[in-house]
Amino acid sequence: MSNNSISIVPKTGIDGLKENWRSDLLSGFLVFLIALPLCLGISVASGFPPSAGIITAIIGGMLVSRINGSFVTINGPAAGLIVVVLGAVEELGQGDLVAGYHYALAAIVVASAIQVLLGLFKAGRLSSFFPASVVHGMLAAIGIIIMAKQIHVMLGQAPIKGSSILSTIAQVPNSLFNPTYEIAIIGLTGLAILIAWTFIKNPTIKKIPAPLIVVLVGIALAKYFGLDQEHTYTFFENAPEQTVGPKYLVAISNNFISSFAFPDYSKIGTLEFWEAVISISLVGSLESLLSAMAVDKLDPYKRHANLDKDLTAVGIGNLVSGLIGGLPMIAEIVRSSANVNNGAKTQWANFFHGCFLLLFVVLFPQIIHSIPYAALAALLVFTGFRLASPSSFTHVAHIGREQLILFVVTIIGVLATDLLVGVFMGIGAKFVIHIYRGVSFIQLFKINYTINRTSNGDVVVTILGSAIFSNFLKLKTELATLESGRTITFKLDQAYLIDHTVMEYFHDFEHNYKEQGGNCVFEGLKLHESYSEHPLAVRRLKS
Predict the structure, then answer these.
(1) How far is 55 from 75, CA to CA, in rounded Å?
(2) What's the rounded Cα separation, in Å, for the pair 50 and 108?
(3) Is 528 helix (H, G, I), strand (E, B) or coil?
(4) Tell me, what DSSP letter sits at residue 413?
(5) Which one-letter DSSP state was computed for residue 372?
(6) pLDDT tens for the chain, residues 1 to 543
(7) How far apart are the first and last CA of the chain?
């Protein structure tokens, strides 16, 4: 795309529809092809009926796209929420997954109301309070949990009911050496396709969504193995007989309206219910905000989402979704990236993707029913690996040793306890490291700074003491109100310590402010020692 075309920002609303319907319709269709199998897989992995994920994506497309504050994001269920939703179903249901589903819907409704309030009270910037390495550690732990659970499904096995996550991981070798062979062939073939797709360089072939290929191959193999009819077989001589059948295929109603379900609020007075509410609202809000900010960086027109409006819209979408049986949604990064790459211009691409999902589930439920669970599990195993890949460990370690410590502490905390406890263990470790490095207890939560204007209208920001993730919100909020087109000088010669989260914010702020015609100058950084060679590593004033 040329610079001239990038400078012509697409219109929004009805004018944007008239101007860009062709490109948005095509992108919406291509995203729908990616979203369908992911919605089904995420829903089943979350302990919800397969249709629940589709309900969520339809609402995210057709409703949220009309009221949100972003431009090319795709809203729908996400792998990052599998752990919290499944945990809510299992904890609240106490062995009864159907009852747990209805209790979890109630938790989603209450969590959604909290999200709406957070957006209305402009709490979008609260995401800054969570250190980047802790967030990455949380996502990596979620990836490990997804892989641990879905590997069994991919191989046609199941871990012992009620197993802890560590026990589920320990049972993986047993499933690997004792698979249900026909199911494992479907799952492993799907995984092989996803891995092979990452090595393909041809841009035309890359346009074909890999999840679509996995599902089509999975359907073909399921037909070949006759999974629509229950039968027994012996895969090789002397092997034990195995039974397969329709239970390995996605179960979905031919009447989409009958897929709707309603929340049960009878556990609203229990501690488990409110743990689920806090987990869903916290993780969902944090993931959605981070994804929206990431998509802003991909937008070729350099538009920036209104994060508070976006959070409010996602909360409203989740409220509707929870009331009729759907999963919680976020601004989803993988589908949003595909949306940008497919040439989407406005929110209408998200709307069209929702429309295509609705049409498909109403007109072609039998096709959905022919999809094997093992193919969907392969998609989730691959997604989990991307969240917890070795490269993520390497990236964090490159930023600094303390960042790797926070990353690993969070992962271990989440796996050994639960998601919320693990996140707060990571934050606690961050506080301990800052105190060890000389940050006073008061400065953990209070930042000292001044903002002055020069005679020509430029701005000088002087930071005194420490600027860290937990005290930076006030200054960040004030910086967001500065007019564009000025020179902003950050005087850091008296800043005792600047952590990675703040350094990352400075980097993004400078990039965005320059795009608005302004300039940023950072004075005093040479007076600091860096804890690694990474340009955004933690810095402390030399003594």
Answers:
(1) 12
(2) 17
(3) strand
(4) H
(5) B
(6) 334 444 589 999 999 999 999 999 999 999 999 999 999 999 999 999 999 999 999 999 999 999 999 999 999 999 999 999 999 999 999 989 999 999 999 999 999 999 999 999 888 777 777 888 999 999 999 999 999 999 999 999 998 877 789 999 999 999 999 999 999 999 999 999 999 999 999 988 888 999 999 999 999 999 999 999 999 999 888 888 999 999 999 999 999 999 999 999 999 999 999 999 999 999 999 999 889 888 988 889 888 889 999 999 999 999 999 999 999 999 999 899 999 999 999 999 999 999 999 999 999 999 999 999 999 999 999 999 999 999 999 999 999 999 999 999 999 999 998 888 999 999 999 999 999 999 999 999 999 999 999 999 999 999 999 999 999 989 998 998 999 999 999 999 999 999 999 999 999 999 989 988 999 999 999 999 999 999 999 999 998
(7) 50
Distance (Å, rounded) from C-alpha 509 to C-alpha 524?
18
Strand partners, 330: 76
And the tokens for 443? 């400065």
Q: Give this prediction's pTM.
A: 0.91
User: How much of the chain is helix, strand and coil, in % rounded to 5?
Assistant: 65, 10, 30
* Domain architecture of the chain: domains with CATH: 3-134+189-374 (no CATH), 442-541 (3.30.750.24)
Question: Could you tell me if 123 and 311 are in contact, meaning their C-beta atoms sit under 8 angstroms apart?
Answer: yes
| DSSP for residue 534 | S
Give the helix/strand (H/E) hosting 341.
helix 333-341
B/e letters for 57-95, b = 16+ CB within 10 Å, e = fewer, are bbbbbbbbbeebbbbbbbbbbbbbbbbbbbbbbbbbbee
Report d(CA 395, CA 534) in Å as an integer: 10
Q: Are 323 and 108 in contact (CB under 8 A)?
A: no
Q: Which residues pair with 489 in a beta bridge?
A: 460, 521
Give the helix ranges, DSSP H, for 121-270: 132-154, 165-170, 172-177, 181-197, 203-206, 210-225
What span, in angstroms and rounded, lies between the C-alpha atoms of 234 and 343?
A: 49
